[in-house]
Amino acid sequence: MIEQELLKRFERLRTHYELLFATLKEERRYLPQAKVDKLQVVVKKIEQYVSTIDNERSSLINFLKKYTGKKKPSLEIDDLIGYISPIYHHQFQSLYDDVTRLIDDIKRYGKENRFLIEDSLSFIEATFQKVMGAHEDNTTYDKKMKLRKLQHNNLLFNKEV
């Protein structure tokens, strides 16, 4: 009985992780294009999948608490395999490996996507500061190597632009 329940729960987790991973790939496609409307939809989908995964994991933990009697049951393969009949070991191991691989892929993709987002925001901020002349260091050296202050460089209001 526990074998079927664990297999069913891990299959659901795998499905949700696959959907999350596919959505992160979709996000990656839209990031360089700066398609904000599409990114907003993707972010909502990511939030939904993460919430669903959290709920599935909580449900799995609660199931294991009831079955094992432990307050903090482990989700490590070595501990879980002990509750499963040997005829299901290979099937469960394969499923567990899929989930573990997906989690690693999701972490990597999420980290790379965050880097792309932060890099894009830094570029936008630097461009904005150049245009507005905000927070620039206007100190430079003259021909005699003495420090002098430059006029504020606000290109937005410059007649030459």
Note the gap between the termini: 75 Å
Q: Mind telling me which CATH architecture this is?
A: Up-down Bundle
Number of domains: 1
Shape: elongated
Rg, Å, rounded: 26 Å
State the main characteristics.
single chain; 161 residues; mainly alpha; Methane Monooxygenase Hydroxylase, Chain G, domain 1; two-stranded antiparallel ribbon; 2 strands; 68% helix; 4% strand; elongated; disordered C terminus
Notes on the structure:
This protein has 161 residues and is mainly α. It has one domain (2-136): FlgN-like (Methane Monooxygenase Hydroxylase, Chain G, domain 1). 68% of the residues lie in helices and 4% in strands. It is built from 4 helices and 2 strands; from the N terminus they run ααααββ. The protein has helices spanning 2-30, 36-68, 77-80, 89-132, and strands at 139-141, 147-149. Strands 1-2 form a two-stranded antiparallel ribbon. Strand 1 and strand 2 (147-149) form a beta hairpin. The longest helix is centred in the C-terminal third of the chain and has 44 residues, at 89-132.
List the helices and strands and how they pair.
Elements: H1 2-30, H2 36-68, H3 77-80, H4 89-132, E1 139-141, E2 147-149
Antiparallel strand pairs: 1-2
Characterize this entry briefly.
The protein is mostly helical and 161 residues long. The protein contains four helices and two strands, in the order H-H-H-H-E-E.
